[in-house]
Structures are given as structure tokens and as C-alpha cells.
Amino acid sequence: MLGLNRKDTTLLIAVAILTMFAPIILNPFPVDSAMAQFNAGYPDLMQRFVIFGIFAIGFNILFGLTGYLSFGHAAFLGVGSYSAVWMFKLLSMNVLPAILLAVLISGVFALVIGYVSLRRSGIYFSILTLAFAQMSFNLAYSVLTPITNGETGLQLSLDDPRILDGAGSAGSLPVTNLFGLEMRATETVNLGPWSWDFSAGYYVCALIMLAAFYLSVRIFRSPFGLMLRAVKSNQQRLNYTGLNSRPYTLAAFVISGMYAGLAGGLLASMDPLAGAERMQWTASGEVVLMTILGGAGTLIGPVLGAGFIKYFENIFSKINDNVLHTWFAVLPDGIEDFLVTIVHPFVGKGWHLTLGLMFMLVVIFLPGGLVEGGQRIGRLFRRRKGKQTDAEADASKTPAE
Amino acid sequence: MGILEVKGVNKRFGGLQALGDVNLSVTENTCHAIIGPNGAGKSTLLNCLVGKLIPDSGSVMFDGQSVLGRKPFEINQMGISRVFQTPEIFADLSVLENVLIPCFAKRDGAFRMHAVEQVSSEAELRDMALHMLEDVNMADKRDHHAGTMSRGDKRRLEMAMCLVQKPKLLLLDEPTAGMARADTNNTIDLLKKIRDRRDITMCIIEHDMNVVFSMAERITVLAQGTPLVEDTPDNIKGHPKVREAYLGEAQV
Q: Where are the transmembrane segments (chain A) (predicted)?
């Protein structure tokens, strides 16, 4: 289907089903239950899942296929956000032109930065991209204040021109929309003790992510994708085989930069403000973690990694001492306090510690990321099933003999 | 006038004169061997032909055009393919994919943005690659992970990758180095088969004299960066200068 083989089609359909039903799947616990704090099905977080999924999918096209580790991809995310907000300020609150401009501008940025950075490979390439990203971050903070609004961040204001639909907004700030459909519009469905939020913004992001995912599958299976994998495997052989690796890597860099810009544009479309901290090196590092954690070079890995990290960031960080005390309340006082003290550094503000440990475990025991973990479990089941059928076959043979 | 004309090539690495005034002419559709003791400059010469090194002076003409100053991929697109001393293959890809890549390079040139087409729908190139794999007896290994194969298999794969491009000139840098006897014989048979088709020029660097004397029609002996003699295998065998270069004067 859609020019994909059966395995990829199945994967695409699975991802489509998961994203479409995410509001239900991510809210498995009734609202009043103690477990409700593990529910991740609120619009803000779900939007983050898919937007950072797009960011990681794009990063994976560069890092997973060519092996070039960019440490400055957040720059494109930030550029995308700024472009989108400017579009909201100048043209219209419709998200479509904003997203298009975000992709376009970040593509131009990626072309310039990639052209220079790709003259080197390995660690030098990483350092060059990091330098460019930090440069963009610092410029956005200082010299470029007229464009970026410096520390405060770029926001909408009442006196923005908004050529196309500026007239309607009297008194209050307008909201982003897609041809009239407001991004913040949310339909809440209550079923028994459960409550599910279906947000327009989430579904716009989810559909765009599906399209982005489909495109990345096509790139992975294309001759272009094959050449990118060849770059990673043996660039010298590629050059002596009559292929010029430079335009291939540059194209991959620009494509992944545009994915990052798309993610940035979507972030701004959901919440129309853009700050320089979006370009900081920690943000660049985060997408590297997402991709490696999920499985670099795999199709679905980056999306899993993005979901995993965003879940931790938003859910684990909310578990504070009070929550811990209620969990362990049934235990005797001394043990309760002891357990709370033990768990305390790993949750709440300490969620980074848990994430770091998880990351170390994955890198050491599952170098292929979460995807490899899934594959191993899958193989384990298949082997067991295989043994069972063997045993059954043996059993059915014996009486006959 | 040969298909490859090397004239007065010099290359110096610091104080070492790696190549000194090398002249070489390779006739079209023959097999030409370059031999010489270690450090004679054989690999340096080869590197000058494929664009890995640029000579300090001299000229290298291939098929009437200069190769000097061109990048390795441009020289390959002119029709020169090279087999390396240690097999250079795409170790992370499958055997079939390894052979498909040069097919794409041959058809589409040095760069084409073919991100929407799918590799699986390129039936013509796939057939071409599979035929090539049959030629080198590797069709059954087409889905193998290239990096996990034996050295002999890697070498055959590398040759398949070069041959599928139908180059005008095939450069072979010690194609049997580090191979088991059986693999060496297979490789010689394969190379002879290619030579006897008479549609490809071969230039081979080799230490194994068995290979050289069974393959080559002309032999150039290099010593200390300069060609000593160039002649037919029969004349080279007993040549006093060659013995001197290899064994030293005292033992002659």
C-alpha cells in the first residue's frame, strides 16, 4: 500500500492507530484513582509527544542513516518557532502559512550550516554544528532582539498588523487556528470514571506526524536512503564507486533541518510564543538522546524515544514527596520515611537521574535502543511458541509410533 | 598509444622520493602487472591514478583525458574502478545492496535526488546486480550481511562491485593478499575469465608471482620509485636487473 512493502505498511497502520487513539490509550486510569497521575492523555503533553516525534524522525534521517551526529539541531527547531510566530504576527493566525514558512526558513538555515559543517566529519562535524547552534542561541538572546525579542521571547501582541485577519481581534489576543478550527478546541468525553480529551491541536499535529513518518519510511527505502546508509558504512568506497557523498549528506542535513523546523513551527502553532532557550544545546542534546534511546537508524525508534523522554519529563517530574508519602502510607512510619528518602532523588526534580540511569542501561544492554528490546522480546516469544509447537508435534507423533 | 599513459610522474613525501619519473603505458584490453619489492612505490602510483594522491609533477592521461586534479568519484565516472588491498565494501549492508550501489552510480551519475522512488521497484538494476553476483558465484549469498563474510568472499564482492560498472580500466591492488590457497585460485580463475573477454583493461599490483605470471601480458618492475624494466613475463623471469632488485646484488 502507498508504495510500501507489507512490513512497512503494517508499521504505518500500527502507528496511525496508536496516534489516532492516543487520547484513550494514554489515559488508562480513571480520573479519581491514585494512578491518575500516570495518565498522559492531556492535550498539551500529547502534542509534545508527536511534535518531538517529528523532530526525532527528522534527526534520525541524518544521524540514523548517514551517521553524522549533529549537535545543533535545536537551532532549526528555534528558527522554525520564530518564523511561525512572525507569520502569526504579520499575516494570519492560520497555522498553515506559519508551518510552511517555518519549514522553508529552517531549510535555508540548514543549507547554510550544513554546507559549512559537512566539510568535516566525525567529532569535528558535531563541534561545528554545536558551535552554529550556540551562535544562533546567543544571537537570538542579544543582537537579534528586534527579531527575537531577546530574553522575553517572541509573543503575539494586540497591535500586530496581521494583514489577513487583524480586524477581528479586538480586546483579546487571537488564537491559532486551521481555517477556523481553533487549535485549543478540546472535546472532553466522560465515560464512567474515565475522561478523555480530544483536542483539535493534537489531531493536526498527529496527522502531520503521520505524513512525516510516511515520508521518512519512503526515504529509508529509496535509492537516496541506500546511498545515505552507504555513507555511514564506508564513505571511501562510495567515493571510489563514482558517487559524490557531499550532496547526499547535504540533502539529508537539509531534510532533517526541515523536519526540525516543522516541529518548531508546530510548537509555536500550539502555543504562539518562541524563546531562545529552544535553541540551547541541551535541546539539541535531547533529540540525540531520544534517537539513541529509541534506536538510531530504525523507523519507529525515534518516535518511541521522544515519547519516552517526554513522558518522563512531564509525569515523573510531578511525583513529589507528598505523593510518595501517600503511596507508602500503609507502611509503618519509620519504613515509610526511609522509603520516601530512598525514592526521593529519583523522582520529582530528580527525574533526570532516573532518565540518565535508563539511558545508561539501554545503551549498555540494548545498543539498538528500545526497538532492539522489543525485537528481543518478540524473538523470545516466537522461540517459546516454536518450542511449544515442536513439543506438540512430538506428542502427536509418539502415540502413532 | 595506450588507454592509460603515465608520463614523468614524481611524488615526494617529505624527504622520501616515493615516485621518481615514472613512465607507464597500458594497452587497451590487456592485463598489465606492476611488481616490485616492498616500498617500491606501487601503491603510491595506484593512488595517483585514482585521485587519492596528486603527483608533484608529470601527467596521467586516461582515454585521452587528464585525471590529475579530479576527485575520486569523477575518475570513477570516467571509467576507472579500483579493488583495494584490504577489501573496501559496505560492511553494514547486504551483499545485493553492495552491488546495487555501483549500478545506481553507473546509471544515475555522481548524484541524483531519488528519494521518492523505491529501491525494490528498480527491477532492471536488480537483475543486473543479480547477474553479476552469479558471475562471481555469490548469488546464494545475496541477503548476507556483507561485513560478516570471509575475506575471500569480501574480495569477490568488491570485484563484483567494480565489474558491474563495466569499467574501461580495472585497477587491482594485491587482489590475493592474505587469501587462502583455494580462494587465491578462485580469484585467479575469475580474473582470467575477465581478461579473456577482452573488453576490459586490467592493471594489477601483486606480490604472488604465480598470479603475476599466469595473468599478465606485460610486466613493469618498479624499484625505489622508478621503473626498472617493462617487458613480457617470459623476459622478466630471467632478467638480471629484476633479480637484483628483489634479491640484492650479492646473491646474483
A: 12-29, 49-71, 91-116, 123-144, 200-220, 247-267, 287-312, 324-347, 353-374
Cα(A240)–Cα(A224) distance, rounded to whole angstroms?
17
- A224/B113 CB distance under 8 A: yes
Q: Which residues in chain B have their CB less than 8 angstroms from residue A248's CB? A: 111
Chain B closest-CA separation from residue A250 CA (Å): 11
Residue A389: pLDDT band (50, 70, 90) is low
Confirm if A65 and A232 have CB atoms less than 8 A apart: yes
Nearest to B187 by CA among B223, B163, B222, B169: B163
C-alpha distances in angstroms, B120 versus A252, B100, B211? 21, 11, 39
Q: Which domains does chain B have, with CATH numbers?
A: 1-79+167-252 (3.40.50.300), 90-166 (no CATH)
CB contact under 8 A, B165 and A241: yes
Interface confidence, given as ipTM, is 0.91
A262, A103 contact by CB (below 8 A): yes
- Check: CB of residue A302 under 8 Å from CB of residue A56: yes
The amino acid sitting at A39 is: N
Strand ranges of the sheet holding B31-35, from the earlier edge strand across to the other edge: B80-83, B169-173, B201-205, B31-35, B218-223, B226-231
The fraction of chain A above a pLDDT of 70, given in percent, is 95
- Burial readout A59-81 (b: 16 or more C-beta within 10 A, e: otherwise): bbbbbbbbbbbbbbbbbbbbbbb
Picking from A97, A55, A61, the residue whose alpha carbon sits closest to that of residue A76 is A55
**Which chain A residues contact residue B105 at CB under 8 A?**
241-243
Are the C-beta atoms of residues B29 and B73 closer than 8 Å to each other? no
User: In this complex, do B120 and A221 lie within 8 Å of one another by their Cβ atoms?
Assistant: yes
- Per-residue pLDDT for A285 more than 50? yes
Half-sphere exposure of A292 (CA within 13 A, CB side): 20
Q: How many residues does chain A have?
A: 401
Residue B227 to residue B219: CA distance in whole angstroms: 10
**DSSP code for A1:** -
pLDDT at B211: 85
In order of A165, A171, A201, the CA distances from A185 in angstroms are 19, 20, 7
CATH of A6-318, one of 3.90.1570, 1.10.10, 1.10.3470, 3.40.50: 1.10.3470
